[in-house]
């Protein structure tokens, strides 16, 4: 080992005599002085205080976000407004808090502190709406617009740690995987948890037995949804003490939960009409229930009576409702969105050399049948896939026929579609000239 008195700091070159303290490495080949230790300590503190700033993420205005949503989601105007403002404020909050922490770090070095710094808290979102009303599509489209990682989970598959099922941390793993294991990118993502209403307690009274797929999962989700450093098994599955874990900070992950909440309207209506006493008390019951606006009328107590625990309700302060889709909206959904089902079928048949059109009566019939199925927009795909199967299996000769017109009779009765020969098309073009 070298004589310590003859050595100098490996980092700044300061000799031992000029330093208050010079610390040697275990093998005695390198040295660091107390000033360099202090500088390194400050760098580590500064790094630990950093919250990722999304300079590469241009946040559109709420109006621009809604305009982009309009291209993919028909109807649900209020829900689109609520979500546009929510995600805009969420990412604006992240940048604001980042700059506050940077300023606080600088002031701590100068031994000055601003006690009036305001920390903006995260506001997660709860969407209430019937199946097939577009909850998942809205969130997926939001993530696409903002170009952030997105993960979707079904609450019914989740259980408490230690029970058969899926740990709640696996929801975070899906987000990390969709971010290509880039943790920093995942920490600014969006997670949508569907069927959250299925986690409701069966009654308002706490059960003496374990509710591993209901209240227990709500408890397990609490810290993840709010803010925590979660340990996630990189390959999924159950945790065990000897495996390496991925660490992810959930502070800046936006959680959006959704569910049908069947029966919640009864709870709200009962509360709202509790003061109605007399002969006319129940005359407008059905009308009033139909007019319930979940964005305005629902209160935390209603969700607690439904079966969500108070702590969980408190972590979902933004609530929006989605409307049932009528036949007019379903007709627009078939035709208008950028990725509408009819546009998808047109592209599929174009690959086989055909132009395909759906007449107005066929579109109206499909939308009406979808309402009868009571599965919202999902019913449209069910009907289309079923009815188009035979045609796609037994296509006409593309050398002879160039265009196919789908009629109501084809959808309703299975009649043959209208086939237009290519020669006819050529003659029509010549006549037009």
What are the defining features of this structure?
five-stranded parallel β-sheet, 433 residues, 12 strands, alpha/beta, single chain, 45% helix, three-stranded mixed β-sheet
How are the SSEs ordered, and which strands pair?
Elements: E1 22-24, E2 31-33, H1 34-49, H2 62-70, H3 77-109, E3 125-128, H4 135-146, E4 150-154, H5 169-178, H6 183-186, E5 190-194, H7 215-226, E6 229-232, E7 246-249, E8 254-259, H8 264-272, H9 285-290, H10 294-297, H11 300-306, H12 310-314, E9 318-321, H13 327-335, H14 341-351, E10 355-358, H15 360-373, H16 378-393, E11 401-406, H17 408-413, E12 418-421, H18 422-432
Helix pairs in contact: 2-3, 8-11, 13-15, 15-16
Can you characterise this structure?
The structure is a single chain. It is built from 18 helices and 12 strands. With 433 residues, it is α/β, with parallel strands linked by helices. A hairpin with a 6-residue loop joins strand 1 and strand 2. Helix 15 (360-373) packs across helix 16. The longest helix has 33 residues, at 77-109.
Summarize the structure.
The protein is of the alpha/beta class.
């Amino acid at each position: 080992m070298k004589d310590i008195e003859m050595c100098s700091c490996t980092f700044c070159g300061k000799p031992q005599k000029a330093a208050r303290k010079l610390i040697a490495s275990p093998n005695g080949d390198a040295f660091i002085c107390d000033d360099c230790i202090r500088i390194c300590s400050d760098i580590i503190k500064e790094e630990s205080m950093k919250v990722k700033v999304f300079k590469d993420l241009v946040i559109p205005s709420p109006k621009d976000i809604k305009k982009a949503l309009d291209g993919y989601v028909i109807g649900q105007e209020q829900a689109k407004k609520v979500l546009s403002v929510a995600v805009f404020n969420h990412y604006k909050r992240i940048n604001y808090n980042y700059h506050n922490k940077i300023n606080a770090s600088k002031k701590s070095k100068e031994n000055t502190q601003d006690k009036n710094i305001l920390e903006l808290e995260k506001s997660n979102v709860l969407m209430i709406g019937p199946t097939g009303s577009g909850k998942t599509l809205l969130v997926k489209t939001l993530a696409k617009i903002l170009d952030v990682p997105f993960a979707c989970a079904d609450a019914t598959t989740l259980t408490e740690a230690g029970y058969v099922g899926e740990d709640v941390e696996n929801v975070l793993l899906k987000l990390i995987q969709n971010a290509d294991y880039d943790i920093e990118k995942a920490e600014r993502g969006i997670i949508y948890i569907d069927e959250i209403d299925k986690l409701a307690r069966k009654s308002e009274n706490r059960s003496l037995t374990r509710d591993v797929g209901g209240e227990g999962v709500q408890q397990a989700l609490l810290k993840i949804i709010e803010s925590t450093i979660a340990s996630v098994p990189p390959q999924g599955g159950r945790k065990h003490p000897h495996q390496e874990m991925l660490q992810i900070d959930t502070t800046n992950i936006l959680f959006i939960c959704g569910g049908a909440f069947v029966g919640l309207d009864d709870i709200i209506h009962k509360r709202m009409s509790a003061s109605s006493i007399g002969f006319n008390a129940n005359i407008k019951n059905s009308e009033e229930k139909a007019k319930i606006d979940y964005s305005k009328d629902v209160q935390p107590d209603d969700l607690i009576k439904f079966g969500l625990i108070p702590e969980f309700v408190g972590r979902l302060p933004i609530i929006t409702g989605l409307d049932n889709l009528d036949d007019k909206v379903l007709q627009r959904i078939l035709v208008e969105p950028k990725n509408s089902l009819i546009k998808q079928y047109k592209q599929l048949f174009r690959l086989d050399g055909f132009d395909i059109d759906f007449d107005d009566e066929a579109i109206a019939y499909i939308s009406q049948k979808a309402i009868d199925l009571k599965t919202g927009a999902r019913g449209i795909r069910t009907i289309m896939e079923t009815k188009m199967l035979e045609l796609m299996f037994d296509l006409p000769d593309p050398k002879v026929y160039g265009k196919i017109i789908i009629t109501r009779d084809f959808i309703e009765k299975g009649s043959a579609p209208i086939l237009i020969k290519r020669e006819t098309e050529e003659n029509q073009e010549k006549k037009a000239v």
